[in-house]
Amino acid sequence: MSGSIPFYQKHHRHYDRGYRSTEAEAKMSHYKSSSRYSAGSSISSTRTRGLNVSSHSGLEEIKLSPVPKRSKPSYLAVDKENQIIGYVVPIFRGSQEFTSGMSDTEETRVRETAGYMARRNLFTKGLEMERSEVISRKEAMRESAERISLNKRIHEHEEHFKRMNEDSLMHPPEFVIKPRSHTVWEKQCVRLHCTVSGWPDPRVIWYKNNVAIDPITSPGKYKLESRYNVHSLEINKCDFDDTAQYRVSAMNSQGEQSAFASVVVKRFKGEVDEALPLPRRTVAEDGPISEYGITFQTHIVDKFGVSFGREGETMSLGCTVIIYPALHRYQPEIQWYRDDVLLTPSKWTHVHWSGDRATLTLTHLNKEDEGLYTLRVITKSGYETYSAYVFVRDADAEVEGAPGAPLDVRCLDANKDYIIVSWKQPAIDGGNPIVGYFVDRCEVGTNHWVQCNDTPVKFARFPVTGLVEGRSYIFRVRAVNKSGMSRPSRVSEPVAAMDPADRLRMRGTSAPWTGQIIVTEEEPSESVVPGRPLDLQVTEATKNYVVLSWKPPGEKGLEGVMYYVEKCVVGTDSWQRVNTELPVKSPRFALFDLAEGKSYHFRVRCCNAAGVGEPSEPTEATTVGDKLDIPSAPGKVVPTRNTDTSVVVSWEASSDAKELVGYYIEASILDSGVWEPCNNKPVKATRFVCHGLVTGEQYVFRVRAVNAAGLSQFSPVSEPVEVKAAIASPAPPYGISVLECVRDSMVLGWKQPTFIGGADITGYFVDYREVIDGVPGKWHEANIKAVSERAYRVSDLQENKKYQFQVRAANMAGVGIPSLPSETFLCEEWTIAVPGPPHDLQIREVRGDSLVLLWKPPVYQGRDPVNGFYVDIKEADAPEEAWRGVNTKAVEKQFIKIKNLKEGETYVFRVRAQNKAGVGKASDVTEPIPALTKPGTKEIVVEVDDEGVISLNFECCDTTPDSKFVWSKNYEEITESSRLTIETKANKSKTIFNTPGEEDIGIYSCLVTHTDGASSSYTFSTEELKRLLEISHDHKFPIIPLKSELAVELLEKGRVRFWLQAEQMTANGKIDYVFNDNVVSQGEKYKMNFDKNSGVIEMVMESLTPGDEGTYTFQLKDGKATNQSSLVLIGDVFKQLQKESEFQRKEYFRKQGPHFIEYLGYEVSPECCVVLKCKVGNIKKDTSALWSKDKHQIKADEQLGFTEGVLKLEIAQISKKDSGVYEVVLKDDRGQDTSTLSLVDQGFKDLMNEVFSYIANSSTPLKITSTDEGIRLYTFVSYYNDLLQVTWQHKDSAIAFSDRIKSGVVGEQLWLQITDPTEKDMGKYAIEFNDGKGGLRRTVELSGQAFDDAFAEFQRLKAAATAERNRARVAGGLPDVVTIQEGKALNLTCNISGNPVPEVTWLKNDREITSDEHCILKFESGKFASFTITAVNTSDSGKYSILVKNKYGTESGDFTVSVFIPEEAGKKK
Fold first, then answer.
1. How many percent of the chain have pLDDT more than 90?
2. Backbone torsions φ then ψ of 255, nearest 5 degrees
């Protein structure tokens, strides 16, 4: 019967790669011979290291020949510094991965060896096996040598022939064997092969859907191989995306050829393993399969732990992945699983790989995200996984008391008329039972949500109707109780409202490369009415709907069949057609609107174009109502201790539970009455680990089951259990080695188990057995009583016999399983001179840059006693050659602190002992230790309390109830307690020094058991002891610290304040005030005060008298702490203080009336105005101010305003007459105050100097200008005062003024005039303003171009002035208009000037006129020109001009003559 079962049903979990077509198997056998000679082969070949026979399914391997392993050849490519830079594929290497057979010779040898092994007896077994293996190796080596030699000769011959006949051999690529198409199951591997010929050797490229395949971009997915013209493409772990058309292209200089093959990936429904898929490579008994000679080692560190989130939050899970060797551009395959289901990137989950860290981000947590998350890192050598649980709590309800949101909303059945939506009930009901659920729908592409049911439904499935055919929808569900509505669930996946047949027809069975592949039956027969449907049954019935299903009629070849559904009430014969409008196409239908409580029969008819067939057999009577019952309560609940924050809860499953969804677990602290859910997503198993519990508390648990009908009653409450780490027997020890060997005994050493079971190891048990000719004997106990040390001498052995040993560890939970048998050791006495290996190496105080290594001395001392140790170090992944010494000089102690480590690097260590004869054998290597400071690591802290007690304190945050603090001195546990007192409370421990002294000097360390190596140390040196003893003395005899010593200051009214400030004093502190050794007390003379908050202590005296001269002391006492401070006030110090006090006292009384805050002074404004001002205070309306100068009143300010505080007197242009004594008197009915300012002699001189300073600073830079007399230097000031003293200098010497060089002031301009300058006047000129302080100096350089330009300008101006002075001029005397009566005489005279004497010309109406009897023109003495008309007439009217001219210029004078007749003038009037 088993032979008829399809292969995929028997071996679907581990699909055999040999499951291929007959042709493929034949081609694979063609390449089997080459695989036996693959480099580094150790698994599939029988000629090396023994025989491994693989079963057909690849699940078992039988190891027949335990021959010692030989080291694998390394194919790593390294540089000069032994750094891996890649890998090298050897020439003679075949593909062994798909090889499942052996050669005839090998099979014969295997059968003979196996048969002989079965027949031989115990005493000859080892000898015959070794003999057979020697023969096998010789035959294999001979065959290998012959093959290599033959292949080499053939290859050399072919190469020679090609070189000799290159042109004749060249031809385009040709596929001798083309790749074949494959149909494979999901998650399995497929390999496409082809053989290509051609010369030159073609270049082969593989394509997927016409896209070139690059294995680097998808590490681990594709593998390409090309050997001896055989090319292959291997696809690892096929999935649906690998369904495609694959093309292989071969190309050389002669042309290109392509071949095609298709790969179809299938999934067999119901037989697919839901567990995690196995990777392509599995770990064999001899180790992981290596590729290219490399075995990848994967380590997952920095792991995420059990995590808790809340709905709506974002959570990231991450681990650091270390892969060795680290090959360039090699990327592992990273997979994430939730509850063993592979996660794919979506809007809810983001997957990221940074090259060394894998991260999964849950963008918006929902309860669907709760579960066990697993990270799987897959390399070509195997895989590593890590898992941790993620819990998701409900978000805070929008309405207090509302239930949690439903979860896992899905669409079970989708048709054009309805979609059945299912969900899971929440764990939290808000304190009130859930009344029901509302289902909402939303059309894809919109944001409009529509409620589907008017009343809440209790059943966790609901058919949604009223949908538009062909459109897609998403759904969500809300729970409701009497308090309100829950938050909506996460939306479902979108689903289309259409019949399944239509959906399949639209989707088709398409491959990406050829369009649709339609799978049909036989050609339909025409005009045939279909028969009856078969196996009609009611698959689901609730009070809201009934679902029917059936099978199509058995006839083949019918035309497209559809169905009509009919119903009939039980007890009647009236059948009604349900789908009257259109028949349905799928063999499944849901009926609605049935009367609850009534019973119905149902039947189905087939129909097609030929007609309607006969009805099917009716169903049994079906009563409309919920057929699914709420499950019964689970049985007994048993909690079991797990960790210090978790408990394992198991329970009995609900009996007769149908369609069980899972279980909800709740926990409560004993007697609290408050129950909290442990999971918010139902679990189907009957065992669950409840995390997040409080260590040390006692909890009780209860469970209830859930299905679509609802939640069951709670199970009985469990017995209480304390949250505490469970205790188990320890794991086996490991690393057994021989520390010493004599004639009849051997001393063994071993390493502590990696897991001690949660309790201290109480001892070890050692067993031994004799090994004769490789055959081990029976185990014997070496010790009846457990030994506490990790070293033991096994006695009563026989010399020169071989033995194996095993060790078991024991704790309070029992004795653990034994370790693996050790290597075989020969019992013979050691006679070497050097010591044996140290043992029991331990690592403490691991930090980012240091750690402490401890060891025990060798048991075998050698010829002389051990006198020192050497420690070696290397990186964990470094080769043996990388060992280097930590110390160059041997250390005598059995511990060392190793510093200068590289943070994050992983190291291993070993120790060697030496004596006079030399250095002995190294110890076993420690486990790899990463140099990392763990989070929360604390150090030992030294403290000195108030009593002066010195103590070392250590705190550990990771303690468990079983943890113990172990204190050591110089790394030897402290057992003698006369000098120390150790106190431990909770997670803190303290070591107190009873009488600190030099005997206590050393290194003190503390180790916390049952933790991850929590430890720290403190060096108690001589200097540290001295420092701590000083602090202790200060604490025993404390001194009240002072922030400030006793000081004195003056207050208002001249009062004297003595004060100091203490650093810290309690409210019980006391102070004694002492003057000249006499205690003074509170009274009229002394006022004392002590501010306990600030620590200020003060004593105030109203005034000082001669009798107050002396020493003042404040004596402080607070408990046993004391202190004092003194202040000596005698001699001049006292007199000065007393004088100042009296002055302050007088000042106080002065300020009781109107007074000067700032006395009379002056200031000079930028405009050089002098303002006398003073600031006054305490004035009122009737306060008056009188100004006077030299006792003469000059100004009175009365009724000053309250806001006014400054009195001013402005002197606009100050001069000597303003010198004098100025005085201001303030007075009112409260008194008066006077302020005087002397502005005479030096006072006036100082004022003027300040004025001069303003004037000097306002001066402009010295400039040069030219005049017609010479060159002028000048500067401007904003204001000039006659008292201002300036000095002009030439070449840094004062200028002696003369008629030629003069200085002066014009307005605000100060100038220096140089008349008729010569070259002697060239040089640097300066003007210096004298302000009594240092003055201001302005300079200008009159030389070079500046002098030339100025001199040229002077010459020009001088000539222009001469010309202007001597040119012809009409000086005056001529009117503008002359009106004269006809007949009268006109005589005009004007003055003429000019040198030389100018020529005179007269013009009338711009025409020259000459002198005659009528018009007489005269020019006399060169100065006077006259114009006379003896008797004017009307013809003399006109415009007249006189024109004077000489060599320097011309000038004219115009006038108009108007002659009138008297009669005409009378008429005009």
1. 32
2. 155, -170
